[in-house]
Each structure stands twice: as C-alpha cells, then as structure tokens.
Design a protein that fits this description.
2 domains, 318 residues
Length: 318
C-alpha cells in the first residue's frame, strides 16, 4: 500500500462491549482500515470483536495495561501511519458518535482546508437546549480555557473526541508527550498549534443513550485548569519569544507589569486609607489608575493579536 493512501478509523475501547460492533457496522466503505484498541478493557472488548466481527478491515490491538484514551489513540495513529494511511479518524466505541459523519470530518482535510478537524455539538441551538445544564456550563468553561491555552480561538467544544487528522501532521506530533488521559483532546490542540496546523470545527449532533461516561467535568476542571495554565505559558514562550518576536511580544510583559503595579499600588493605598481614615490624595489615585488602564489596554492588544494569529495555512502536503 502506498504512502498516505486511504482513510483509517481508530476506535479506543474500554467498557463499551455492548456498542462496539454497532459502531463498526456503521462505518462506510470509504474507510480502508479500522483499528480497535483494547485499552486493557476488563470486559475484553478486543477479544469480543475478534470473535464476533467479520469485517476484514478490522485490526484489534490490545494493551497489556490501561494507558487512557490518549494512549490508545496514539497506538492507533502509529499503526495507521505504519500501514501508510493518509487520514486517521478517531471515534469512540460507546455509540455517541455517528460513523456516517466520517466523510464530513475528512472532507476539509482532503480539500486542503484543514490539517485537523474536530466535532462541535454546539452549532445547532436546538441540540444545545437538550444538553444537561451542568454539561453545558462545564463545556463553556473548558472551551474558554482551551482557547487561551491552545491559541485556537475559532474552536469550541474542546472535549469532543470525534476528530480527524492528516498523517503528515500526526507524524510530527510528539506522541510520548501528549496527555494520555482525559486531557488528551485539548493537549492535542496545544501540540497542533505549536506546529501551526490548521484546525476547524465540524458541526455534529449530540447523542446520549444508555452508555456510561467515565468523564465527570466537575471532577476534572481543577486538573484541567493547571494543565491549561502550563500549556498557555509554553505556547506564549514558543510562539512569541522562541520562534518569533513581534510587537505583541512587548505588549504582553509591559501590559501585565503595569496592570500588576497599578492594582497592587492601588490596593495598598486603599487598605492604608481604610485603616487610618485619611482620604487618599488624587495624585496617588491617578498613579494607581493610569498604569492599570494602560496595562489593561496593552494586554487586550496582545489578546487581539493572538486571536488574529490563528493558523490559517495548512501544513500537510496531501
């Protein structure tokens, strides 16, 4: 098989034995290979597929120990790259992701409009109304954090695991560094931004059946906040100081410095005035307010530049 020829589907499976065969049956003829990654599933999903699935496209790969969804997807990506696949689509094994949408996810990549596509369940307002309120709020918070840390201000629904990627882009990703657990999808976006890959959203319908989700947003927001802060600092260093320098590289430290000085100076004198009962002089107030306002303007200018710097030129050669 030639290099970069064909579409592959990667299906990580863990405790989804009741749905996996239906997911495979729904995959259309446009797909050449299907990789089922049994992530040390206690229900032996991989063995179940081997014994009950007759689809010749299916290859089952078993992990001796659980690596998480990210580790399973990386295993599938590597197998697809080794087999010369051109585009890899990742879908879950729990039946929430409609395999009939695979052509929609690969179309922007084939057309040269994107290097990476991901699902977005928030395009249709009627679907949004049906979502559990806590899930909706959690995704909104995670989306805002992801925009800051990844630099993809044009994307939403960052925990959506329905994705597609071109092999030329995937082979440049540091598989051993990408988060292997629930932070996988958002960490992928950060890594893709460091490559300046073009990523776009694909509208999709949210499906909720009798499947059991292992992701509890209320439990992972704190962990995600720490990891997003880490990726944000890395991205800013890589993009604005290591690989390139621009006016924004000056605006950010000056803006944060002035904003921090004005706020600290103002709070100090406000507390001092409250203790002594003596009104703060107008000059002191201005000395706190002016740096804070200028710092805020510089920081907003940096954010505006960052939003305008979303990657728009695809990097794959296919």
């Amino acid at each position: 098989m030639g290099k970069n020829s064909g579409i592959a589907v990667v299906i990580p499976t863990y405790k989804a034995r009741n749905h996996i065969l239906d997911v495979i049956d729904g995959i259309g003829p446009e797909v050449k290979r299907i990789y089922v990654i049994d992530d040390s599933c206690p229900d032996k999903s991989g063995e179940y597929v081997e014994n009950n699935c007759k689809d010749h496209r299916v290859t089952v790969i078993k992990h001796a120990e659980n690596k998480g969804v990210g580790g399973a997807v990386m295993t599938g990506y590597q197998a697809a790259i080794d087999d010369g696949m051109g585009i890899m689509v990742k879908i879950d094994s729990d039946g929430q992701m409609d395999p009939a949408l695979i052509p929609d996810f690969v179309a922007p990549i084939i057309a040269g409009e994107a290097d990476y596509t991901k699902g977005n369940r928030f395009f249709d307002l009627e679907d949004v109304r049906l979502m559990p309120k806590m899930r909706l709020f959690g995704n909104a918070v995670l989306s805002l954090m992801c925009k800051l840390s990844s630099g993809y201000w044009n994307l939403f629904d960052p925990t959506n695991g329905y994705t597609a990627i071109h092999a030329d882009v995937a082979r440049h990703l540091p598989f051993h560094k990408i988060s292997q657990r629930y932070f996988f999808e958002t960490d992928m976006l950060f890594r893709l931004n460091t490559l300046r890959a073009v990523a776009v959203d694909v509208p999709m319908e949210a499906k909720y059946g009798d499947e059991v989700s292992n992701l509890k947003i209320s439990k992972i927001i704190g962990e995600f906040l720490v990891k997003h802060a880490r990726n944000l600092s890395k991205r800013i260093f890589y993009n604005y100081y290591l690989r390139d320098m621009s006016l924004a590289s000056i605006e950010l430290p000056c803006g944060l410095g002035l904003l921090g000085f004005g706020f600290t100076y103002g709070v100090y004198h406000w507390a001092k005035s409250a203790q002594t009962g003596i009104a703060t002089p107008a000059g002191t107030v201005m000395l706190a307010a002016m740096p804070a306002m200028i710092g805020l303007q510089l920081t907003l200018a940096f954010i505006s530049y960052d939003i305008a710097s979303v990657p728009r030129r695809r990097i794959h050669r296919g």
